[in-house]
Amino acid sequence: MGRKNRQPLAERIAEAAERSLTAHNYVSPIDVLMSIGWLTPDAERRWRHGRTDSLECVAQVGLSRLSEAITLLRCWAIEKDLFASATDYVSRTPQRQQLGISRSENPEVEQSYRTHWVSPELSNKKRERLSQKISQAPELVVIQPLNTAWTCHRCARTGDLLVMDGQGPACLRCAGLDDLEFLPAGDALLTRRVKARSPRSAVVVRFSKRRKRYERQGLLVETPALTEVRREVEAQRRG
Ligand SMILES: [Zn+2]
Question: How many Å lie between the centroid of ligand 1 and the Cα of residue 64?
């Protein structure tokens, strides 16, 4: 046990929140819980992928401690004059389901976890943009597996690309994404515009053994949007 664990909870929360605010201009209850070690990165990842019933049921501490921490964060944020901004948590799976937070599904408790606290030092415009960014649904991630000997847990087939859903790897057909077209990374303008225009999109990643992390390979987007934007961008580039 280090010094950290003997520190009063209010101080640990304030320190974690302060760090997060400095780094991101906002503080989220989940970041703070992770920062004080009450939520492990692995538990958070499983929750984000919709593989747990609720966030509270994968935390390292019980409900009363969690509620204490969230209340302390709220007090700290109010004292600092931070702005409250509500966020929806949507799963990083094709189903895009709302992620459950509390075991009780109590709306008040859910609300307290959804509240992000934004720095008052930002201009109104910047704050608005940040709130928008925070509440955006996370990108859907499609994996180009290094090991091609995988099977879809739904149809038992395989393929070049897979999506992790609540139960395991699924093929694009079972995930309802097989009509999307691949746009390789590299053209930033085209990518940005197509992404904004395509009602559905997913980022394609592949694990780099050398760099030990997932790297973006490109985007899967809807064909009509890609065709349209490609034409616009080409016309623009011809001048
Ligand atoms: Zn399948």
Answer: 42
